[in-house]
Amino acid sequence: MTIEIAEICRYPLKGLNAEKLESVALTPGEGLPHDRRFAVAHGSTHFDTAAPEWMPKTNFLCLLRDEKLAQLRADFDPESEMLAINRGGKQVVRAKATEAMGQTLIGQFFAGFMGPAARGTPKLIEAEGHMFSDVPDKVVSIINLASVKDLERIVRRPIDPLRFRANFYITGVPAWSEFVWVGQQIGLGPARLQVLKRIERCGATNVDPETAERDMNLPRALQQGFRHVHMGIYARVDSGGEVKRADELSPPA
Fold it and tell me: What is the DSSP string of 36-78?
């Protein structure tokens, strides 16, 4: 059976919604362009944009603690660098996310939206070449939709795969087979990737991306059903290329 890319997604603003793509240019040692490019830092977070270093997600607004973020939709235009935030289908703020004034305007919106949960005045931040990933390395994430389907068998209800916030969603391979690829190289269209490790799941997956309700406990379901809390794999891009939706994934030989 052919293994195919069903969806390609990036998340320009950490903690907010996916933007679906028809294709993406992968570069060695990098994540998807503009993926996790921006984050909203807590007022108490000290992040040096001139010398950025990786920080845990708890320094930023994130679904792990702030499920109401799922009420929002972000729309980022890389050409104009304008970031728009929508709530309930209505635009609530739009500004140039790479300029101080625009970052202030967006931060002010989140201050009002989050209230005390922002722990001070929140700040929209970015740093050249930096990716606000959940792990220190620049990686892409891959979810096998058959594994999500098998987890549905445990929880006895549908699971939106976007709860897992992956870059690539794949079909055509048996559930959990992707774990065997750890430590090996795979092909993704013309690109080659080194699979690094499984993805350990946290409470962020408990939030429904459509309703913003914390309505499941997926880490617990994984533990009870499969004796682990993993869903998906991280991979490093070793050789790049233009990857398109419906391109084939080549498993290790």
Answer: T-BEEE-TT----TTS-----GGGB--TTT-GGGGGEEEEEET
